[in-house]
Amino acid sequence: MRHEAPKLLFLQTNTEIRLNTELFIARRIIGDRETRKNISRSILGIAMFSIALGLAVMIIAMAVVTGFKNEISSKVVGFGAHIQIVNFDSNISYETQPVKKTQKFLPVLKNEPGIANVQVFGTKAGIIKTKTDIQGVVLKGIGSDYDWGPFKNYIIEGETFAVNDSAVSNKVLISKAIASLLKLRVGDEFLMFFIQDPPRVRRFTVSGIYETSLVEFDRIYVFGDIGHIQRLNNWSTDQVSGFEVMTDDISQLEEMTLKVSDAVGYGFEEDGSKLRVINIFQKFPQIFDWLKLQDMNVIIILLLMLVVAGFNMISGLLILILDRMNMIAVLKALGATNRSIRLIFMYQSAYLILKGLFWGNIIGLVICLLQQYLGILKLDPSSYYLTTVPINLNIWHILTLNAGTGILVFLILVIPSALISRITPVKVLRFN
Q1: Which of 129, 312, 313, 390 could covalently link to 67 via disulfide, CB atoms 3.0 to 4.6 Å apart?
Q2: Residue 4 lies in a domain
């Protein structure tokens, strides 16, 4: 007579419902009070904790690195925009060759998807002199089309100033570093000297004070009306140093640079000059190369955490299998297949993985939120360009980390579960 493996049946309102046998046994093992007291339970708890800790570290690392990149990129963009269009003859100095303010490509750029704003700018080196101090700076001239958006978060005193085409404003925005060096406050007046032939001087009033913690920028830039630069350089109102292009997404900057280059063209202007397109990555490569290095640090951290979590779960599953040798032998003696028994332990492992992911998310998100709103961890702005550790929580990053960690650890557990096929009921039950 042929014997079949026993089936677990559940009777409800005279209806026979077949349960998932493997899931039923796994749930009984998880809820078994005796199992909770033995040593394998403690080891499995350590394995679950390693998954939670690993995921928390990965969430924090991803949030910090992306926060660094977003914050520093935003600050640098405030000084030079995403893309600049300048005269080809302009060098790295702040005394630039002018270009015409009216260009045929401007309507095309302003209507290009992905471009947020196009604004004129001008730069000129000068020296600020007070009664007791002197400081070399760069006056960055802006027009009425300037977008203060990226800079408003960094203004700590006073306010921005308005620029219109009918009259030149004497108000300027200076950094906290310059204000500290020259002992200036909001509302104070100062003289700025420009070394040219003949030398010229302008009187400005401090409208506001900003702080970005980018020391090399904060010590240099003063924001003022572009009309002053046009008059100092004897330019017409139709001449500027160039154009700044703000894009919607910095991750698409290389693609947008090519589009701007195509719109600007590669020919010569009517006056014989030629235009050059340069993006923020090309203008400040040292800063963005440093940010790229942080990506490698994140990759290393993610791999290490996954390896540690994977090995801890492997050791935990092996101990769980060894602890349940008698159960495995009995199930095999009753006709259960190796696949069926492996599923029991895989279900139990999946439960532990999900529990570890749950607590990992709680730990990681709580730490990130505390840092984001309280700024507990401080930084040296001269080295890191920031005063506190930045946090950028992205739901897609968190979901990807959870899915990747859960799937990879679960797949790794397929290897030790193969040990079940080597267990022989006769050898195990003989000694019990």
Answers
A1: 390
A2: no
